[in-house]
Every structure is written in C-alpha cells, then in structure tokens.
Design goal:
Length: about 375
C-alpha cells in the first residue's frame, strides 16, 4: 500500500515519520513544490522554532485557538502537547521550557528539528520529490491508496485571511512612545467580543506585542471584513473595572495633595507613558489638589478607554498564519478524512485551524498529522489486512 503526502512542511514530515513508525511496510512519498523542504520550520520562532507550549497557562483552548479549538480538544486525546514534548525528546531533540511556557529545542536552533526529520525520513526510506507542485491532490488517488494534503496556509486563498499581524496606527502623538512596552494592557475592538490582555509594544508604525497579536488572531475575520479600518480601545492599567481605576487614582491624589501629578504614577506606569497620558489629559504640571473631579474622570477615561484608529495591517515577521482553510465540517473529526473523497486526508495549517503565537500552530500541525497517520495505519491494518 502507498501514501502520497502533498507538502513537505511540518505536518507533512511529522505525518510521514509517524505513519512509517506505525506501519513500516507502507510506501510513503512526499511531493514538495519548492526546491527545499521544511522552509517555514527553518525560519520559525526567529530561527529557534517555538515547537510547542506546555499549555500550563491555558484554561480554555479557545483562548489560544480562535479557530479549531473544539476539534483540537478531541484530537489532543490522541496526541497531546506532552506527547509532542516526549516525541521530540525520544527522537533526539532535547527541549527547553521558557518562563512564558513556550517550548524550544535546547539547541535554540530550528535545525535541530529539521535534522531530526530528515534523519528519520532517510531511516524510514521516505521518498521525497522536490520541485513538484501538485495542483489537484485528489487525482493522486488514481495512483496512491491514500493521499494526505499538508500544503499549509494560503492567506489569500478563497475564504482565507491572514492572522497574527500588528496594527498600523498613524497617530503622530504616539511617536513619543516608540519602543515603549506597556506590560499589562487590555486591548479591544469596541462593539465586538474581541479583546485580549498582555504586553503592548509601541512601534514606528503603530502597535505590536503579544496583546495586539492575540487580538489580531481573534478578530482576523472581523478586521478583514472591515478592510483593517477599526477603532481600538487601550486600557493601560490591566484592570478592566473603570471604577476600581478611578478609586485607585482618587486615593493617590488625596494622599499627595501637594505633589505634582507627574510624580504620582499609578499602576507603576512607565514615566514616558504617564507623561504622555497627562499631556493628552492636559493635566501635566498640575498639583494633585488641582486635578478636580473632571480631571479625575478624564484621566480614568484615558487610562481605561484610550481610543485609537487602526488604519491597516502590518505583517508580523516573526510568525504569521492563515485564518481559514478546509472547513472542519467537511472532514471526519476523528480521522480528518474528507467526507466527499474517501482516502483523502488533511493535516496542518491547510485546515481551518489556527492559533495565537507561542508554539500553538506547530502543536496543531503535530496533532493533526499524528491523527491522520493513525487513521491511515488503522485503515490499512483493519480494512486491507496489510
Ligand atoms: C515566519 C514564521 C514564523 C513562525 N514561527 C512559528 C513558531 O515559532 N511556532 C509556531 O507554532 N508556529 C510558527 N509559525 C507557523 C507555522 O510555521 C505553521 O503553522 C506551520 O509551518 C504549518 O505547518 P504545515 O506543514 O501545515 O505548513 P507549511 O509548514 O507551510 O508546509 C507546507 C508545505 O507545502 C508545500 N506546498 C504548498 N502547496 C503545494 C503544492 N500544491 N504541491 C506541493 N507542495 C506544496 C509548501 O511549499 C510547504 O513546504 C510561523 C510561521 C511563519 C510564517
């Protein structure tokens, strides 16, 4: 029996190696359109490959997989993030966990993973055809018993839009904050459920950092539909309750009546950010006793509801993925086999599954590839008695 895998990326290789471990007699061929395989793995995570995450900080998969969380919850029972961790270590790639729960090869080099995959592919005699673009994978079913499509994402393909990008905000007042990181910000798109929390970085084009990337992922479709034109609310305090923030400010002001407000920084905000907000509120240089109720309200509003206008999408060079792809209701949720084309399977980013930054996208590739490998091995053994 034989299997054709279309796409020599992360999911394609992981599928090929795992299916050969389960069923060594299966002939496996990878077709890759480029002259090189695993190109994205090489550049991933800034060349270090953030290959998974411990998920220790994840209470709900929907937080990290805006699309595909339910399917992945089911598939993690077959191959979980800890299984992936063990898999790499057992295949000679020692891993390390960062404080933010992101997992990288100990070598801090994505080639540790590429070398492992190429070594395993050679060991299992997996055939690799480079510079071979397959336009209609289902036609391969005439020559192969099984076909797996692992062609990755196509951000501009039909029904697909980019995810994981930063926001262009042409607001000259932000120039004063370039390079500043606000450690705990809450960002949201008004009149939508889309919000996220985390560090926010001010750049020369607008805003970036984990909070913005997460928001771009959750709101990927909404922003595309609005041509990347949208208001953005920034809460600089990390506290979503404006009444708490007002009380906190009011107390600070009462306790320091003679001090200049510039010297009374709430929430350990950086001096540059506090100065910027005070200028915006026209309160710079005032003593606390002069702030008054109106000043307090203005400051509370700026701290919790500072409004900007997103006017475009700026590519995030470190990682970007596709929102959209093969609809999940068109495949079997256990085997990822097409409901319309038996023996045609899908794994990796080609599916309508994508995550935020932090190793979640590779984990989706490993898990879906493993599920397909298992389904093909099981089908060969039970139905065809290989
Ligand atoms: C710059 C960057 C950095 C990233 N860093 C991280 C990270 O650190 N952690 C993380 O979790 N995720 C990261 N990602 C996302 C991650 O790389 C992808 O989610 C992952 O590679 C998806 O694996 P895949 O095998 O589905 O697709 P790919 O890795 O994209 O592989 C698909 C392969 O199929 C080939 N192909 C496409 N069409 C055809 C065709 N018609 N015929 C034959 N071959 C074809 C392509 O050339 C490619 O080699 C990053 C992405 C980018 C762009």
């Amino acid at each position: 029996m034989n299997l054709a895998i279309v796409g020599g990326g992360a999911a394609g290789f992981f599928l090929a190696i795992n299916v050969k471990e389960m069923l060594p007699q299966l002939e496996v061929t990878i077709f890759e359109q480029q002259r090189k395989v695993l190109a994205k793995v090489a550049i991933s995570g800034g060349g270090r490959c953030n290959c998974t995450n411990t998920f220790a900080d994840v209470t709900d998969l929907k937080q990290v997989y805006p699309r595909g969380a339910n399917l992945l919850k089911r598939l993690f029972k077959q191959f979980s993030p800890s299984d992936a961790y063990r898999w790499f270590e057992a295949h000679g790639v020692p891993l390390t966990v960062q404080a933010d729960q992101c997992v990288f090869p100990q070598a801090q080099d994505s080639h540790a993973i590429i070398d492992c995959f190429l070594h395993e592919a050679r060991r299992h005699n997996i055939h690799i055809h480079l510079s071979t673009k397959i336009d209609d994978p289902e036609t391969l079913l005439q020559q192969f018993d099984f076909v797996a499509v692992t062609i990755g994402g196509t951000p501009h393909g039909a029904g697909c839009v980019p995810s994981l990008f930063t926001f262009t905000i042409p607001d000259p007042s932000l120039n004063a904050l370039q390079g500043l990181v606000a450690d705990d910000s809450l960002v949201s798109i008004p009149s939508t459920p889309f919000r996220s929390q985390g560090p926010l970085l001010i750049t020369h084009w607008g805003m970036s950092g984990p909070a913005i990337l997460k928001l771009s992922s959750h709101a990927a479709r909404h922003l595309a539909e609005h041509d990347y034109q949208s208001p953005l609310l920034v809460n600089w305090t990390g506290d979503s309750n404006a009444d708490h923030v007002r009380q906190h400010l009011s107390l600070l002001i009462q306790q320091n009546p003679q001090k200049h407000i510039d010297n009374v920084r709430p929430y350990s905000l950086q001096t540059r950010l506090w100065t910027y907000l005070l200028d915006k509120a026209q309160l710079s240089g005032k003593r606390c006793s002069e702030i008054g109720k109106k000043g307090l309200n203005r400051l509370t509003n700026l701290l919790t509801n500072d409004t900007y206008h997103i006017s475009g999408r700026y590519p995030h060079k470190e990682e970007f993925v596709t929102c959209g792809g093969i609809p999940l209701d068109s495949i079997d949720p256990h085997t990822l086999e097409s409901k319309t084309h038996p023996h045609l399977f899908y794994a990796g980013e080609v599916l309508d599954i994508d995550g935020v930054t932090g190793g979640f996208n590779f984990q989706a590739a490993w898990t879906t590839a493993y599920a397909v490998a298992k389904a093909i091995a099981h089908l060969s053994l039970t139905k065809y008695n290989v």
